[in-house]
Specification:
- The protein has about 140 residues and is mainly α.
- It folds into two domains: about 70 residues, Arc Repressor Mutant, subunit A (Orthogonal Bundle); about 50 residues, no CATH class.
- About 55% of the residues lie in helices and about 5% in strands.
- It contains eight helices and two strands, in the order H-H-H-E-E-H-H-H-H-H.
- It has a two-stranded antiparallel sheet with strand order 1-2.
- The radius of gyration is 17 Å and the shape is elongated.
- About 25% of the residues are buried.
């Protein structure tokens, strides 16, 4: 459903949020290991997300990535829009360019409800909630 870049971005932001809630900063090696991602790839993703304000970063010996209170309020939908665009929430289920209410594809009427349900679920899925569920061991990021 998401691109590989988007999957890694979501997992990395949740991981950073959980590991930095005590004020610490997390390095790329730890993040890559913690979410089973290639180090170079996740570094590139997080640098981009840092420039865009989705995660904070600091350089130096005590540097690394961390999240502030504003970042904890991000939804998965915010991340998806930034990485993959809006296609998941508005695109045609068959990938057609001209699909619309006035000119529907064969699955348009059924798919629009699925798209809407996904959007509502992802809008309500906040980073802070994932951190709380991880802390309670209700969910996991890595086996």
């Amino acid at each position: 459903m998401f691109s590989k870049t988007c999957e890694y971005a979501i997992r990395a932001l949740i991981y950073v949020a959980q590991k930095s809630k005590d004020g610490s900063r997390i390095g790329i090696k730890d993040i890559a290991s913690g979410i089973d991602s290639p180090e170079y790839f996740i570094a590139k993703i997080l640098q981009d997300l840092s420039r865009k304000g989705f995660v904070q970063s600091a350089k130096g010996p005590n540097g690394g990535f961390y999240m502030d209170d504003k970042n904890l309020g991000l939804s998965v939908a915010d991340i998806v829009r930034e990485i993959d665009g809006d296609k998941l929430f508005s695109g045609c289920g068959l990938g057609l360019k001209e699909c619309s209410e006035n000119h529907p594809c064969p699955i348009h009427n059924e798919f629009k409800h699925i798209r809407q349900a996904i959007q509502i679920m992802l809008e309500g899925s906040k980073i802070q909630l994932f951190v709380e569920n991880l802390d309670l061991k209700l969910t996991f990021l890595k086996k």
